[in-house]
Amino acid sequence: MVNTRPGEISSIILGQIEQYDRGVKVFNTGTVLQVGDGIARIHGLDGVMAGELVEFEDGTVGTAPNSESDNVGAVSMGDGLAIQEGGSVKATGKIAQIPVSDAYLGRVVNALAQPIDGKGRIASSESRPIESPAPGIISRRSVYEPMQTGLIATDSTIPIGRGQRELVIGDRQTGKTAVATDTIPNQRGQNVICVYVAIGQKASSVAQAVSTFEERGAMEYTIAVAETADSSATSQYLAPYTGAALAEYFMYRKQHTLIIHDDLSKQAQAYRQMSLLLRRPPGREAYPGDVFYPHSRLLERAAKLSSQLGEGSMTALPIVETQAGDVSAYTPTNVISITDGQIFLSADPFNAGVRPAINVGISVSRVGSAAQTKAMKQVAGKLKLELAQFAESEAFAQFASDPDKATRNQLARGQRLRELLKQSQSAPLSVEEQVATTYAGASGCLDASEIGQVQEFLAQLREYLVTNKPEFTEIIRSTKTFTERAEALLKEAIKEHTESSLPQKQV
Questions:
Q1: pLDDT at residue number 296
Q2: Ranges of H-type helices in 99-254
Q3: Does 176 appear as a known binding residue?
Q4: Does residue 414 belong to any structural domain of this protein?
Q5: Residue 135 within a domain
Q6: pTM of this prediction?
Q7: Is residue 54 domain-shared with residue 120, that is, in the same domain?
Q8: What confidence tens digit (pLDDT) does each residue in 300-330 have?
Q9: Residue 261 is part of which domain span?
Q10: pLDDT score for 20
């Protein structure tokens, strides 16, 4: 038996007191009462914030969107299969946030901004909340810079500006994703950071899109956020917010960004699934009453910032799928009311071989010519009006046995203009090429051509301008204006090219 003197005991106690860490950590914890379908009912978690991140006993992370009188409803970010009743849950004290940095460029991540491309971790020293307030009126300025898509059908008739929200809407398999993803490679060299958000897509489709970006050198300024069809509803719901947070990081650093949400119909369905499992009261089409709010607070974050904030911008191209062309359905009408215009893709033109199948009559840009270069504004002029009139005349001519000469001329001009707007996928046109092409159609230079030869004639004309009239390209590129000299050069090129191609057509 060891004899310990009282003085030694007191010195040991005093030593322990001196070394005692006074920082007492108190965790807000709760217990899982019920779990199923990725939804957990939790007792406890007093004072948990709406949308706060919670951590389950097995390490699974979730959020707490429902706070009721006697329990908290939490949704798991994963499949939730490892969560058990009676298990403990810890509140993290943090609203959902993600790390952000320049190192995300060229990477594919999930809704928590974790890499899923097998290229290792992503270094970052900063984080942003997944949801943040949209810029106010004073923080914004009017949209005035063009966001060139490379598609003549949009840039000439439905222009998109930096900071605009332009909805891409249409039935499935009408080329909505192609219109949006063709815009990303066209931003090469334009100092625009792109974010592509894939929500509920097939993994093969996402891989194909990323592969296309890599082949065309676009991945170096692009971030892909992917939550595929087998992901949880929570992850699919959060993915667009994660993409917006990544784009905001660059926007507030005085850079231009483009974000594509592909597509918000699936996000709305994921939100409906979450809400029904959380036992929120269903409304129209079983969606919760606040289904408008997730889309509005997401898309309102797209903006053109004021001069005081550096004039950065976030341009949003949300995609929404319709059923049988019904734009009056719940989700389409909601998103149409939030955005600054829509590009409507119709199934009938698509099946008839018109690609991109943009319905110029229904499509609209509420920013309009403010988002066009001066050169395009000068030559496009009445192009959209002529196309809309052509569509009406074509429909009416089906019932007329013998249309008059004016109608026949209008139909002939319209058919050639429709051919002019056809464009292969992954074949963007520069501004100077679009100006030359649009002028050729709007000035009537194509009226003498056969309809089947319009595409070939225009392609050869663009090549002829590059090789024989480089001054035209230089004028448009440097001044962004269709000057008298540029018009004279283009007229010469059209005349010379037409004369050189005529003998070949007569043989």
A1: 96
A2: 152-157, 176-183, 203-215, 233-251
A3: yes
A4: no
A5: yes
A6: 0.89
A7: no
A8: 999 999 999 999 999 999 999 999 989 999 9
A9: 99-372
A10: 67
Residues 6+ apart with CB under 8 A from 456: none
Is residue 265 scored above 90 in pLDDT? Answer: yes
Shared domain check, 49 and 144: no
Q: Which two tokens stand for residue 162?
A: 């930096």
| CATH of residue 62 | 2.40.30.20
- In terms of domains, do 205 and 279 share one? yes
Is residue 415 marked as binding? Answer: no
Q: Identify the pLDDT of residue 447.
A: 82
Confidence of residue 8 (pLDDT cuts 50, 70, 90): confident
- Is 266 annotated to bind ligand? no
Q: Give yes or no for a contact between 110 and 77, defined as CB atoms under 8 angstroms apart.
A: no
What's 246's domain CATH number? 3.40.50.300
Span 49-83, pLDDT tens digits: 988 999 999 888 899 999 888 899 999 987 788 89
Within-domain flag for 272: yes
Q: Which residues contact 257 (CB under 8 A, 6 or more apart)?
A: 192, 193, 194, 195, 247, 248, 250, 251, 312, 313, 314, 315
**Residues 253, 233: Cα–Cα separation, whole Å:** 32
The yes-or-no answer on residue 485 being catalytic is no
Domain limit, last residue, from 63, 94, 125: 94
Are both 122 and 228 inside the same structural domain?
Answer: yes
* Residue recorded with tokens 């026949």: 408
**CATH code for position 495:** 1.20.150.20
Peptide bond into 263 cis (omega under 30): yes
Pick from 228-232, 347-351, 396-400: least confident = 396-400
Q: How far apart are CA 372 and CA 353, in angstroms?
A: 28
Measured between alpha carbons, how far is 349 from 267 in angstroms, rounded to an integer?
28
Q: Are residues 45 and 164 in the same domain?
A: no
134 and 118, same domain (yes or no): yes
Of all helices (H) and strands (E), which one includes residue 426?
A: none
Q: How many domains, the chain?
A: 3
How far apart are the C-alpha atoms of 234 and 435, rounded to whole Å? 45
Q: Is residue 11 part of a domain?
A: no
Q: Where are the beta strands (DSSP E) in 288-414?
A: 313-321, 341-345, 364-365
Kindly state whether residues 30 and 136 are assigned to the same domain.
no
- DSSP lists the bridge partners of residue 109 as 115, 225
pLDDT band at 504 (very low <50, low <70, confident <90, very high): very low
Cβ within 8 Å of residue 154, ≥6 positions away: 160, 179, 343, 356, 358
The token duo for 260 is 């594509």
Which of the residues 279, 284, 366, 408 is marked catalytic?
366
Alpha-carbon gap, residue 73 to 89, rounded angstroms: 12
Residues 76 and 130 in one domain: no
Say whether 174 counts as a known binding-site residue.
yes
